Amino acid sequence: MDLKKLRGAITSEEVLGKDVIDTNGVYLGVSDKFYLDPKTMRVLGISVDKGFLRKGFVISTNYITEVAKHAVFLNIGPSTLLKGKLVFGINGTKIGSVASVELAQDTNTVAAIIIKTGFLGMKRLRIPKEYIKSKDKNIFLNITKSELLQNKIFNFSGSRAQTQ
Amino acid sequence: MGKNVDKYVENSLLLKETRNARDLVGISVLTVSGEVLGRVKEVRLNPTSAVLEGVIVNRGLFRTLCYMCKRYIERITRDAVLLNIEPVLLYVGRQVVSSDGKVFGNVREVRRVHQTNEIESLLVKRTFFRKAKIPFSQVKKLGTSIIIKKTFAEASKRGP
Questions:
Q1: pLDDT per residue as tens digits for the range A37-85
Q2: Do residues B31 and B87 make contact, with C-beta atoms less than 8 angstroms apart?
Q3: Radius of gyration (Cα) for chain A, nearest Å?
């Protein structure tokens, strides 16, 4: 075995059990498992434990920037964290809040967001990504609230692709 | 509006294109990231030109008012005042994390360059008695948490 190659390597102990922090500095959870390719033994990703009764998730190594002494830093902000954020129209009118997020298959790209609006948040609207202007602390759309409510293509029946 | 008003207009907006300043009071003020800063309390005009100079924002009970000059206002719409900045006062209370991922403390105070939105330094509360001053040049990333360039051990060392 070439011992020189091992000098810069890190062990599983240095990755597992550490805090996972996204690009915005949000604490996501604790890394608890490695996923290895059984043939090449290459690390494919880590799973993140979000705590008691909360569903964890798996992050591919492409999204990991650095394994530091006390934490694992990611180069993305997981799109699932959009859930619960407020949604504003182009004029700053509050429309509602994010009920769930539809992701493009196995990536962090948002395909659409489902928002709850109206009386007690009972009405659901599906907003495709083309209508999302920015998503940071809250979400801005590039259409007005009246355009959104008048157009029937945004109505959501609840039977579309799997949402998170 | 304006049926019974005698209008005198030359080289300026028509009456129907203008807006009653009273309607601005109470609307939301949103930062560039979509965070609600507060509600408009007052609209301030230039006393000589009568042009809008800024708005005073009411941030809620027990919080100080803040004044946003027109330079930091992107747009005023029917329902909100949209800012083109993320006011640095929103960083107060946020966690400060070292480059190796350990929590260093919480932001107690943000010191600014004069009255602008530029950060000069952050005063970080570490424990009940210990505080640390982080110059803005040492800040790596501003977000939900503030990530600094130094490691926990380097940042914990007291200055000469």
A1: 999 989 999 999 998 888 888 999 999 999 999 999 999 998 989 999 9
A2: yes
A3: 20
Model pTM?
0.85
> Is A8 at the interface with chain B, CB within 8 A?
no
> Tell me, what's the ipTM?
0.82
Closest-CA residue of B relative to A18 is B101
Answer yes or no: is pLDDT of A160 > 60. Answer: no
Q: Is the distance from CB of A21 to CB of A73 less than 8 angstroms?
A: yes
Chain B residues inside the 8 Å CB shell of A86: 34, 36
Looking at beta carbons, which residues of chain A come within 8 Å of B77? 91-93
Of A25, A91, A92, the CB nearest to B145: A25
Cα–Cα nearest to B77, from A131, A151, A89: A89
Instruction: Output the DSSP codes for B79-95.
Output: SEEEESS--GGGGTT-E
CB atoms within 10 A of CB A141: 23
Cβ contact A125:A117 at 8 Å: yes
In angstroms, the CA A136 to CA A153 distance is 25
What percent of the residues of chain B are helix, what percent strand, and what percent coil, each to the nearest 5? 15, 40, 45
**How far apart are the C-alpha atoms of B146 and B123, rounded to whole Å?**
12
